[in-house]
Specification:
about 375 residues; 15 strands; Aspartate Aminotransferase, domain 1; single chain; four-stranded antiparallel sheet; about 35% helix
């Protein structure tokens, strides 16, 4: 694609689950901020700052529109990444006020929700329940106790497995007087439809997996902030300060987003995220079809390779595997020598991959809209040498 014309034909980037490449319009938007109106948002009245404020606010609205969520019910705050967002929410969650009796997550979680739920359970001295996900990514809602805080991913960073019954899960949690936070890091770019109109209490995501600069976001229900006891606080979050008291900006419903935005924000990155969403929404149907064609082709090849042990049960843009008799780290290094960039290890899912499945370190291919037919041709040619 022209948006990735800067990519050399010899560079085969297959690590989008870590961070996606940035299309040229996103790079241009970031450069425009730094060269044309580099300024602080929400603090100044001169023209550059006004432009920054307008574009940042537009990005907030674009995110809600992207997921078909109403700004009357939700607001958007910006953070560093998904991990930071989850920890902001869970570390300040008033479990007593919420009446929560347990914390629930699943076995295939990234360390972000896995460890943050562990921390909350220890602090609150309440049970932490780990529910096994089915091969299709669904979860048995009958296993979720009432009055639970559920923190779970919408898509796995191991094999792209989707929480296919996400709306049923959200509905069941709320019916049983619980709350649910979704880790959408892996779903936002290639499977946003699973999140459409999903009325979770909060959704955390990473912009750098969404073809945007390094940044995070929290999409939060306006009524959920009542359960947040603000302790992480600083500049940009208050309207007034006395010797021993302060007035939170988020007390004004129009500025709820400041609840999670302490200090100076990454204004240029936020604006470039808006450009990334514009770019994604303008992608032709053929781009989606081409990505699906290439990851399906690679899946079919890996599935039939005599020495490959594939974790995936179905095609996805993210695939993990190991090759019999070959250390994945060594294989990853050898592939790097061929220009193929892929991730090796346990991908921050140590509990499931190492201690439950007892896999050796794996190799992961994660494709994106920049992936070319020639990239997959090269991968197949290299792996053919292992037969």
């Amino acid at each position: 694609m022209n948006a990735f014309s800067y990519l050399s034909k010899n560079d085969i980037y297959l690590d989008c689950a870590c961070q996606s490449l940035r299309p040229q319009p996103v790079i241009d938007a970031l450069n425009e901020y730094y060269t044309k109106f580099n300024s602080c948002g929400e603090r100044v009245k001169y023209p550059w700052g006004v432009t920054t404020d307008q574009k940042v606010e537009a990005t907030r609205m674009k995110i809600l529109k992207y997921l078909k969520l109403s700004p009357r019910k939700y607001f958007v705050s910006f953070t560093l990444n998904t991990t930071y967002g989850l920890n902001l929410l869970l570390s300040q969650f008033d479990y007593k006020k919420a009446g929560i009796k347990s914390v629930v997550t699943s076995d295939i979680e990234h360390n972000s929700p896995f460890l943050s739920t562990m921390s909350l359970a220890k602090r609150a001295k309440i049970p932490r329940i780990i529910i096994n996900r089915a091969e299709d990514g669904s979860i048995d809602v009958s296993k979720i106790p009432s009055k639970s805080l559920v923190v779970i991913n919408a898509a796995s960073n191991i094999d792209g497995r989707l929480l296919v019954n996400i709306k049923d899960v959200v509905k069941a949690v709320h019916k049983n007087k619980g709350f649910i936070i979704i880790d959408a890091a892996q779903a936002m770019a290639h499977s946003p439809e699973i999140l459409y109109k999903t009325e979770a209490d909060a959704i955390c995501f990473s912009a750098h997996k969404l073809y945007a600069p390094s940044l995070g976001g929290i999409i939060c229900r306006r009524d959920f902030v009542k359960m947040i006891n603000t302790t992480f606080i600083g500049g940009g979050m208050v309207d007034d300060v006395n010797k021993e008291t302060y007035l939170l900006s988020s007390d004004n419903k129009e500025h709820l987003y400041t609840k999670f935005e302490s200090g100076l924000q990454a204004w240029g990155e936020i604006i470039a995220l808006g450009a990334a969403i514009d770019w994604l929404e303008k992608l032709p149907k053929s781009a989606h079809q081409e990505l699906e064609k290439q990851y399906t082709r690679l899946y079919e090849y890996l599935k039939t390779h005599p020495k490959v042990h594939l974790v995936n049960k179905a095609p996805a843009s993210t695939m993990s595997f190991y090759v019999e008799g070959i250390d994945s780290h060594l294989l990853g290094a050898a592939m790097a020598d061929e220009g193929i960039m892929a991730r090796t290890g346990y991908f921050c899912v140590h509990y499931y991959l190492d201690h439950i499945c007892h896999y050796p370190p794996l190799l992961r291919f994660s494709l994106g809209y920049h992936t070319r037919k020639s990239d997959i041709d090269k991968v197949i040619a290299v792996l053919d040498k292992l037969k």
